[in-house]
């Protein structure tokens, strides 16, 4: 039986900024210099890892790092600078729709001949690529729905009730064995992956770090509550068809029943969630705060932009016959704690 570590180990640094943040968390060095933060590439490994380390203190933290670091004022100042670099670049780069209605309408369009990651994996992906995909996505799915929970105290009325209802489903409807993070651990186990929380942080690409950091960025800032709702809408509305393709990919490649079940569960659940999010979460939010419509649209568009960047990276690597991970996967046989 594999025993899950509640607090993962700090990963190796990927540059001067993440090295300084890591040293500070270990009490072995100062925080990064302002010029290093300002000069870091917004979507690059160094900045994205540094930001991920800061955010993870609000989830499970890291082994050997004091819990008090979560609200360390000096570290929060550095985090703010990293966030500014990331968010300002994202606002400049994200192609925006003219209106929220247009952004939502785009999410509802399923291309006849899709070219995304789930299409590739369904039609021609190999088992090693599905294992890599699961390892990358584990950074989110092993804490599935947690980043979105930050928005609950920032909503009220219909939006809060609907958001809480969807989150309740994500957390298993009160049944521990049905929590979606636990179901994803089952998928990983079927694929021979280590189910420990944070196990694949060092292996994960900057592109996947950015998709997870986006959720924390939106969730941890009340000013970005509209963008967080937009992100949630993008995830829930596009989940059902994508999950169906991934379930088909897992069946075709001979993955186990737990792996298939994770995506089968999302096909059904997220088809319902899509309606609730559009009509009650977004509708309820805008009934109370109509001025947030542009923020909701930005959340949708920024999510699509970063997911497209991740998809392009994965497909470029896989079509070239190379790994999408920074460190190769070992064949690991694990249990679920």
Commentary on this structure:
The chain contains 14 helices and no strands. Helix 3 crosses helix 11 and helix 11 runs antiparallel to helix 14.
Strand count, sense and closure of the main sheet? none
Secondary-structure-based class equals: mainly alpha
- State which percent range the strand residues make up: under 5%
Q: Helix share of residues?
A: 55-70%
Architecture blueprint of SSEs:
Layout: H1 16-25, H2 34-39, H3 45-56, H4 73-93, H5 100-107, H6 117-123, H7 127-141, H8 146-149, H9 157-170, H10 180-190, H11 206-219, H12 225-252, H13 257-288, H14 293-319
Helix pairs in contact: 1-3, 3-4, 3-11, 5-14, 6-12, 7-10, 9-13, 10-13, 11-14, 12-13, 12-14
Gist of the model:
This protein is an all-alpha fold and 337 residues long. It contains 14 helices and no strands.
Protein traits:
337 residues; mainly alpha; 14 helices; 62% helix; 0% strand
């Amino acid at each position: 039986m594999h025993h899950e570590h509640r607090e993962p180990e700090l990963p190796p640094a990927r540059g001067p900024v993440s090295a300084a943040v890591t040293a500070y968390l270990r009490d072995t060095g100062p925080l990064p210099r302002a010029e290093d933060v300002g000069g870091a590439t917004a979507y690059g490994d160094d900045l994205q890892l540094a930001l991920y380390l800061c955010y993870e203190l609000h989830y499970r933290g890291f082994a050997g790092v004091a819990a008090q670091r979560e609200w360390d004022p000096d570290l929060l100042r550095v985090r703010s600078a990293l966030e500014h670099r990331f968010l300002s670049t994202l606002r400049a780069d994200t192609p925006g729709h003219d209106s929220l209605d247009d952004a939502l309408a785009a999410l509802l369009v399923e291309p006849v001949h899709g070219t995304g990651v789930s299409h590739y994996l369904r039609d021609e992906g190999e088992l090693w690529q599905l294992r890599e995909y699961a390892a990358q996505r584990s950074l989110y799915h092993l804490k599935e729905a947690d980043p979105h929970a930050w928005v609950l105290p920032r909503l009220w009325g219909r939006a809060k009730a609907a958001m809480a209802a969807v989150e309740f489903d994500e957390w298993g409807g009160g049944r521990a064995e049905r929590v979606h993070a636990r179901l994803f651990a089952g998928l990983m186990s079927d694929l021979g992956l280590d189910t420990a929380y944070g196990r694949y942080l060092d292996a994960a690409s900057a592109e996947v770090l950015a998709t997870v950091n986006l959720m924390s960025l939106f969730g941890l800032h009340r000013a970005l509550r509209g963008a967080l709702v937009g992100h949630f809408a993008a995830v829930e509305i596009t989940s059902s068809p994508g999950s169906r393709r991934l379930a088909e990919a897992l069946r075709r490649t001979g993955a186990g029943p737990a792996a298939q079940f994770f995506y089968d569960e999302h096909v059904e659940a997220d088809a319902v969630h899509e309606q609730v999010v559009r009509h009650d979460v977004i509708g309820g939010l805008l009934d109370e705060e109509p001025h947030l419509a542009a923020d909701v649209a930005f959340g949708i568009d920024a999510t699509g932009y970063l997911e497209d960047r991740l998809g392009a990276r994965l497909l470029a690597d896989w079509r070239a016959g190379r790994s999408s991970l920074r460190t190769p996967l070992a064949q690991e046989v694990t249990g679920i704690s």
